[in-house]
Amino acid sequence: MKINFIIDENNNDSVTDANIMNFMFKKLKSITHIKQVNINNFKCEKASINIFFGIINNLLLDYAKFNILIPNQHIFKKEWLQFLDLFDMVIAKTTYIENIYKSFISSDKLNYIGWRSTDISNNIDKDFNEFLLFCYDNTKTNYKKIIENWEPDFPNLNILNGYLINFDTIETKKTQDNIKFHKSTKQNDIENLFNSCGVHLCLNEIDSFSHNINQCCLSKSVPVLIDNGSMKSTINSDIAFMISSKKKKSNLFLGSKYVFDIDSFKKKIKEIQKTSTTTLEIMGKNGRIHSIRNHGLNDVAFKEAFTKIIKHVRDIPINKYKVIDIGNQGNQGNMNTVPKISIVTLTHNRKHMFKLAIYNFN
């Protein structure tokens, strides 16, 4: 069976989610071929299934018998809602996303399966007096706001350049003894710092599924989170510190932005400073248990969903494809697959009737 992964090569969420799903499909051992297709194409190879990761190109829907959308609500344009009915299934990574799309698509097409992250945990010594701010997407997190409100008597703040091109994009050059910028792009250095810092500032004001938060828990560190949004149902206050926020609706996209409160932020940092290392260690260990459990639930839900999908798609006749290839249907063609509006040109000589040339204007 062929599957097209349709991704936006310039969007980290889209690429990461495709890689995660590729890993999950390998566990199924039912897929013969997966091909990545950039969303900017106007055509692609035929496949049994198209899976769109966070973005829509309706021109590609006709190249598969079954189309699946895995949306990221914060980049899902409201004008795309008109295309939702063209999809055979929408997969939700969080219950927050599921609740948003319930209003726009029938329940039999909506499937919540959870999600997972790559586990980058290691056994390096952990220090709960070292805080981490992992900078990877300044459209999701206001890094400047965090850094400029970091007080001199707060713990050490390690600022790691993740997927940002450079630190200039966070628009602050604040210097302070307890603030350190790390510019290394070596994977081993990144993972060591990620695991050694005991508390992570994961103040995503918008997101779909935060790998930053989930990987923090997997590393047995303690996340500091905004108290609302997509990850609220995934992470509870027993394994994280929550900061109050104000909801702000988006005019262009689905879902909302949750802007964290500065006073709540500062009070929470001071609360963490007073929390014992033993308590923080317990929270970290429970956080990993929590994330591993969620991964297991995701494995079960994914296997159950795609076992059914694959069986269903195999039973769909080949003429479900809307892109017509008469050359593969024999000399006479299959007139049941001809669109309602077509120009059919018969070409012949005295001895042989040639194949139909069909031009689809539908």
Describe the structure.
It is a single chain. The chain is an alpha/beta fold and 362 residues long. It has helices spanning 12-28, 95-101, 143-148, 187-196, 211-218, 262-274, 277-314, and strands at 2-7, 33-38, 47-53, 64-70, 89-92, 110-112, 127-135, 156-161, 179-182, 197-201, 222-226, 241-243, 245-249, 256-260, 342-345, 357-360. It has a six-stranded parallel β-sheet with strand order 2-1-3-4-5-6. The protein has a six-stranded parallel β-sheet with strand order 9-8-7-10-11-12, with helices on both faces. β13 (245-249) and β14 (256-260) form a beta hairpin. α5 (211-218) packs across α7 (277-314). The protein is elongated. Mean pLDDT is 87; it is low at 324-340 and 349-362.
- DSSP, total strands: 16
Helix content: 25-40%
N-to-C series of helices and strands: EHEEEEHEEHEEHEHEEEEHHEE
Largest pleated sheet: 6 strands, parallel
Distance between the termini: 28 Å
